[in-house]
Amino acid sequence: MLKEYHTVAFDLDGTLSDPSGGLIESFAYGLSKSGIGFGSKEELRRYIGPPLYDAWKTDFRLTEEEADRALARFTEYYQVYGWWDNKVYPGIPELLADLHRAGKRVCLATSKPAVFTRKVLDLFGIRGYFDAIGAAVSDKTHDKKSEVLLDALEELGVRGEEALRGVVLVGDRKFDAEGARQIGVDAIGVSYGLGSREELEASGFCAIADSVAGLRALLLNNE
Questions:
Q1: Which CATH superfamily is domain 7-18+87-219 in?
Q2: Distance of CA 186 to CAs 6, 66, 127, 142, 169, Å?
Q3: Which of 11, 13, 18, 151 is catalytic?
Q4: Which of 74, 128, 153, 182 could be 146's S-S partner, Cβ–Cβ 3.0 to 4.6 Å?
Q5: Helix (H/G/I), strand (E/B), else coil: 136
Q6: CATH number of the domain at 20-82, please?
Q7: What is the pTM of this model?
């Protein structure tokens, strides 16, 4: 059984919702309109989660100017069509509500830009469940998982080694485990999201949930 946490932080894409339809189409638009070749659209799934600017710049060997152009094209599509092509995972709103009822503080830590983060949370009617929101400034600024998680915890007044022991980050990719480790908090992986179980097992999560029901059992282990 895991220890009891006073603060639960959530990743957004792949953890609370499945954004793959809108994001993959937006990725494809941004790359193709910028003259950047890629394989199948399904191969673009791997860019859901990590900071997009760094990932594209590295994988496609882009200059800063080329990466900026591709991101601008991506945003052009995403801000109109992509952000709402998104589905909240069944059981997530109820879990967030029950965490609050159990006296937990709940926050968000996402590499998605803040403007789109708020749109997505409002789309699902779950924004009010979060006591603090840590999100990227833009697609290429202040978007590391450790940075946005620290922002959310700072807003909650959670600071210092002792307080951080009571924090857990829930996420679906290795980047979530890395970000949590960098600031000294635990991380739980969810395999129902966009990362494979193999990725999660190799990333140092303290536990892995295969369903929202399994995640509930880990976070509310005193039910």
A1: HAD superfamily/HAD-like (3.40.50.1000)
A2: 12, 37, 24, 22, 6
A3: 11
A4: 182
A5: strand
A6: 1.10.150.240
A7: 0.88
